[in-house]
């Protein structure tokens, strides 16, 4: 029975924001969204309610839930974000994680998987210092679904098993059944039908033991899909229609859409094309309303099969074009790279935490050793004092050497992973360049590849050395110039390139911007100046004088008018990096281009 209120039962003065909030929550629970919205608005505008309080933030979050429930996701994102800002001011990491999960779900459903993964991984970091919780289960489960949608089934299964472990450790029966269902779905996508059916049946068994569990419809749907793949159409029809009956009595529009798509696939397989089209149209109505890209892709694939079977050539062509656009939106190279970068940042953060723990352990050991030395000096005046001190010093040296080695190994591994990921991006740029026919686009891709290579060389050198904070500038820039010369077919051993540099080591935070500046200018010289000159020349000079670093790069090309190239990405990058270093730069444009950079090395 719905719990309803009449404003006439209470005077305006006797109803405070707590009453409005409670009434709104009851309406929201009963899916009476208009009434819930009305009372939430009254609550947040009540006198005496602090606009930056935790209570106010919780109401904003609930309004976000309300708008999500009625399909207004943009409004939902707005209220979630406002609530998170307030919780952040209170450093309430649990509530921030809760909102991150809600935002991640929205972006996952919109097909923006890179944004969704970012919110989920950030939410896990908020919960890193807390005990296992239901919230952590939700994060692992959602991350697994993202990887599954990107066809990365190994990572998907890894996170699904983590979610299943948490559900079992916390005795969360509903969540355990959800994990079993999702693992079955992943095996189904890998065409491991027997394993998929095993997990689905375990999920149904567990769900049947729970009272009023409406989630069983999704698993019934999945079992029907397994029988459909096996060609057992009678069993498939039985499970799918059962699932649709349950979905019709719930608010799970996404689940209902999936089942409608599967029923259309069933009737297509039976050759009953009119029935198939009927279910496709029902599903499409929900898809257009909710903006479900994954389900739209499936709907279009089935529709294309039906149209081809009916030899509706023009309609099939139109559907095929639409399907190509949707597939490109859901799964493209940029999103795969973004997901890789997100995962890399997450793994890197975990490694940095391990390094920090080792450093804390080393500091604690040093403090304990100092105290022990003082204690020994106070108690001992005999000859054993010298032996004891020698023994303690030797123990301390050995322990410090061991921990220092661990830190060096971890830092080298960190740089190795960064180097590998940069090389992966470089390979992706290289592969992409083979498909690009437009000259400007090809140059842009090649420039991006060179910039990534410039950073990869640094991490390669850091990986090979024990001092993981400094890089020899002479070695690094010489190797960078040689690689750029080879990429443009220039003989770097000839007399057209002159490189003279002081042999000095610099912190990696200074070397990376300097390397990128050299990469841009040398790249431009090879691209524009060398083809224009019969006897091309390039000079790169770097010297250290009185605590200052002077970098000079000059070519003998035709030069350029800087005011005409103000929008050049290369020049913008150079000037931005110079400002980041706090350096002064000077351009000359006589008989070629000459660039000078003056950097004070004493400024941090």
User: In DSSP terms, counting alpha (H) and pi (I) runs of 4 or more, how many helices?
Assistant: 22
Unreliable stretches covering 5 or more consecutive residues: 1-14
Strand order of the largest sheet: 2-4-5-7-6
SSE series: HHHHHHHHHHHHHHHHHHHEHEEHEEHEE
Q: Proportion of β residues?
A: 5-15%
Kindly provide the radius of gyration, computed on alpha-carbon positions and rounded to a whole number of angstroms.
32 Å
Overall shape: extended
* Mean of residue pLDDT values: 79
User: Which percent range fits the helix content?
Assistant: over 70%
Question: What does this molecule look like?
Answer:
The protein has 604 residues and is α+β, with helices and mostly antiparallel strands. The protein has 22 helices and 7 strands. The strands form 2 sheets. Strands 2-4-5-7-6 form a 5-stranded mixed sheet, with helices on one face. The chain has a two-stranded antiparallel ribbon with strand order 1-3. Among the domains are: 332-468, no CATH class; 470-604, Heat Shock Protein 90. α5 packs parallel to α7 (134-149), α7 packs parallel to α9 and α21 (508-532) runs antiparallel to α22 (569-581).
Topology summary:
Layout: H1 17-29, H2 33-44, H3 54-69, H4 73-89, H5 93-109, H6 113-126, H7 134-149, H8 153-169, H9 173-189, H10 193-208, H11 216-230, H12 233-247, H13 253-269, H14 273-290, H15 293-309, H16 313-330, H17 333-379, H18 384-435, H19 439-464, E1 470-472, H20 473-487, E2 497-501, E3 505-507, H21 508-532, E4 538-545, E5 548-555, H22 569-581, E6 584-588, E7 594-600
Parallel strand pairs: 2-4
Antiparallel strand pairs: 1-3, 4-5, 5-7, 6-7
Helix pairs in contact: 1-2, 2-3, 3-4, 4-5, 5-6, 5-7, 6-7, 6-17, 7-8, 7-9, 8-9, 9-10, 9-11, 10-11, 11-12, 11-13, 12-13, 13-14, 13-15, 14-15, 15-16, 17-18, 18-19, 19-20, 19-21, 20-21, 21-22
């Amino acid at each position: 029975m719905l719990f309803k209120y009449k404003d006439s039962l209470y005077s305006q003065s006797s109803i405070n924001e707590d009453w409005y909030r409670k009434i709104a929550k009851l309406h929201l629970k009963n899916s009476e969204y208009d009434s819930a919205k009305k009372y939430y608005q009254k609550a947040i505008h009540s006198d005496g309610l602090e606009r930056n309080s935790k209570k106010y933030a919780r109401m904003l979050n609930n309004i976000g839930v309300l708008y999500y429930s009625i399909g207004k996701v943009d409004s939902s994102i707005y209220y979630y974000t406002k609530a998170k800002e307030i919780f952040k001011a209170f450093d309430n990491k649990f509530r921030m994680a809760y909102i991150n999960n809600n935002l991640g779900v929205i972006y996952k459903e919109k097909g923006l998987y890179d944004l969704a993964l970012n919110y989920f991984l950030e939410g896990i970091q908020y919960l890193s210092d807390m005990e296992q919780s239901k919230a952590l289960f939700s994060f692992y489960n959602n991350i697994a679904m993202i990887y599954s949608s990107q066809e990365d089934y190994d990572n998907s299964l890894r996170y699904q098993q983590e979610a299943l472990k948490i559900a079992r450790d916390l005795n969360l029966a509903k969540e355990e059944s959800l994990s079993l269902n999702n693992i079955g779905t992943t095996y189904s996508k890998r065409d491991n039908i027997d394993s998929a059916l095993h997990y689905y049946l375990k999920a149904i068994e567990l769900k049947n033991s729970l009272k009023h569990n409406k989630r069983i419809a999704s698993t019934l749907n999945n079992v029907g899909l397994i029988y459909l793949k096996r060609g057992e159409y009678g069993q498939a029809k039985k499970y799918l229609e059962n699932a649709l009956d349950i979905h019709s009595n719930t608010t799970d529009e996404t689940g209902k859409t999936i089942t409608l798509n599967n029923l259309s696939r069933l009737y297509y397989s039976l050759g009953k094309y009119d029935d198939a089209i009927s279910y496709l149209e029902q599903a499409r109505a929900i898809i257009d309303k909710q903006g479900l890209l994954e389900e739209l892709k499936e709907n279009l694939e089935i529709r294309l099969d039906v149209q081809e079977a009916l030899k509706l050539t023009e309609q099939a062509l139109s559907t095929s074009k639409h399907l190509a656009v949707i597939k490109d939106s859901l799964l493209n190279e940029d999103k795969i790279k973004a997901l890789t970068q997100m995962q890399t940042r997450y793994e890197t953060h975990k490694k940095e935490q391990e390094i920090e723990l080792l450093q804390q352990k080393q500091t604690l050991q040093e403090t304990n050793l100092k105290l022990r030395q003082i204690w020994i000096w106070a108690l001992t005046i005999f000859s054993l004092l010298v032996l004891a001190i020698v023994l303690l010093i030797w123990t301390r040296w050995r322990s410090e050497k061991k921990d220092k080695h661990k830190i060096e190994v971890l830092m080298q591994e960190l740089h190795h992973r960064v180097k590998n990921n940069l090389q992966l991006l470089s390979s992706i740029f290289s592969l992409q360049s083979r498909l690009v026919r437009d000259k400007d686009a090809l140059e842009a891709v090649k420039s991006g590849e060179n910039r990534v290579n410039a950073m990869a060389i640094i991490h390669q050198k850091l990986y090979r050395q024990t001092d993981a904070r400094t890089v020899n500038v002479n070695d690094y820039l010489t190797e960078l110039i040689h690689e750029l010369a080879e990429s443009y077919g220039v003989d770097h051993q000839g007399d057209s390139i002159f490189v003279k540099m002081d042999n000095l080591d610099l912190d990696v935070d200074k070397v990376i911007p300097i390397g990128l500046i050299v990469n841009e200018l040398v790249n431009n010289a090879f691209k524009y100046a060398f083809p224009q000159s019969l006897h091309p020349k390039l000079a790169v000079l770097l010297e250290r004088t009185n605590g200052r670093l002077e970098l000079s790069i000059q070519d003998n090309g035709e030069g350029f008018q800087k005011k005409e190239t103000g929008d050049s990405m290369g020049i913008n990058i150079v000037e931005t990096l110079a400002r980041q270093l706090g350096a002064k730069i000077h351009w000359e444009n006589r008989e070629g281009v000459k660039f000078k950079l003056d950097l004070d090395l004493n400024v941090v």
